[in-house]
Amino acid sequence: MGEKTTLIQPLRRYLREDRLPTVFCPGCGNGIIMNCTLRAIDELGINIDDIVFVSGIGCSGRIPGYIDADSLHVTHGRAVAFATGIKLFNPDFEVIVFTGNGDSGAIGISHLVHAARRNIDINVISVNNLVYALTGSQTSPTTPVGAYTYTSPYGSVEGFFDLCELVTSAGASYVARWSTVQPQRIISSIIKGIQKKGFTYIEVISQCPTQFGRKNEMPDPKQLMDWFRERTVKLEVAKKLPPRKISGKLILGEFADRDRPEMANEYRKLIEGVQRGTIKLKRPQLDWLELSFRE
Ligand code: SF4
User: Fold this and answer.
1) What residue segments make up the domains of the chain, in order of their start?
2) Is this structure's pTM higher than 0.85?
3) pLDDT tens by residue, 36-55
4) Looking at ligand 1, which residue's alpha carbon is closest to its atom 5?
5) Residue 4 — pLDDT band, cuts 50, 70, 90?
6) Atom of ligand 1 lying closest to residue 25 CA
7) Residue 220: how many other CB atoms lie within 10 Å
8) d(CA 42, CA 294)
9) Residues with Cβ within 6 A of ligand 1?
10) Whose CA is nearest to atom 4 of ligand 1?
11) Which ligand 1 atom sits closest to the C-alpha of 60?
12) What is the DSSP string of 138-175?
């Protein structure tokens, strides 16, 4: 029976089955994203004991609670800060953060920006359900213009915050955005992100039928997923279209894939240099022209 179960669902070995079923509403995108993450880990053959999961507050923050691995469920907006500390403590850990659009795009935004700037080798999987879901459907930084929420009963008039553009500008090594209708793309990006030495940010537009869908006349998860197909456009396609054709649509794709010095590695080099005595507290003859604003 055990063998048969493994064959049918090989990812079960990563789960804390004693905690199932999850608290997620039926049709929530969180299950798809957890599944994609576990598939990426399984495909890479990483020992789950070498991974530390960190999550903040929000529905997506519950994901690590169902994975049989070390995890920290931390305070609102601080998941990236905790992950930074873990990575600097032991750079051999693979650190994966689950965060939401409220957790990372509002209260935790400065941690997000500076982690991208430092290019610390952590992998952020950002579940963007377009609303503050856990607390009952308030407008979030990524709520689409015109969308109805509990705090925008006449439709939101705030602009959509493109967090992928933000972290790309800040210096992240790898940045991608997909939606839950593209699980294979999500898996490929998580694999790339884990393999990349540097800060990686993978945003997934995810359906929240309960707090976003019901308020916007899409209570069925399939309606939301059809709407994602309708209102998104792939980056390669968008580049060939006139601006009026992509107006109001969200761009999906890979926005950054580059190599930059990684913070934990630079710290390790610094510590080793100081210990060897090749790096001094103060250089006797500092050449000011050597100071650099770019790598
Ligand atoms: S409220 Fe929305 S995001 Fe939260 S579990 Fe339910 S469907 Fe998922």
Assistant:
1) 2-261
2) yes
3) 999 999 999 999 999 999 99
4) 24
5) very low
6) 6
7) 13
8) 37
9) 24-25, 28, 30, 59, 129, 133, 208-211
10) 59
11) 3
12) B--TTPPTT--BTTBTT---SPP--HHHHHHHHT-SEE
